[in-house]
């Protein structure tokens, strides 16, 4: 799927978040990826990791 979307895979196997946010796709909540920012993604990652730690 990565090649179909013309995403550049880094040597460590990751794809840049900026590249993902440029895609004409929608997130889980049917929100366009293009309407999100890197800061939005960082906030979700922080909150998710916090609640995962709290609930362990």
Description:
The protein contains two helices and no strands. It has one domain. The protein is mainly α. It has helices at 17-21, 38-54. Helices cover 39% and strands 0% of the residues. InterPro entries: RNA_2'-PTrans_N.
Major sheet attributes: none
Instruction: Kindly provide the radius of gyration, computed on alpha-carbon positions and rounded to a whole number of angstroms.
Output: 13 Å
Instruction: Please report which band the strand proportion falls in: under 5%, 5-15%, 15-25%, 25-35%, 35-45% or over 45%.
Output: under 5%
Low-pLDDT runs of 5+ residues are none
Brief characterization of the structure:
The chain has 56 residues and is an all-alpha fold.
Write the layout of secondary structure elements.
Layout: H1 17-21, H2 38-54
Features of this protein?
single chain, mainly alpha, 2 helices, 56 residues, 39% helix
């Amino acid at each position: 799927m990565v090649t179909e979307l013309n995403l550049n895979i880094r040597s460590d196997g990751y794809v840049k978040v900026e590249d993902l946010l440029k895609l004409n796709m929608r997130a889980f909540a049917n929100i366009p990826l293009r309407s999100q920012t890197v800061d939005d993604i960082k906030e979700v990652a922080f909150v998710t990791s916090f609640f995962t730690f709290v609930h362990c």
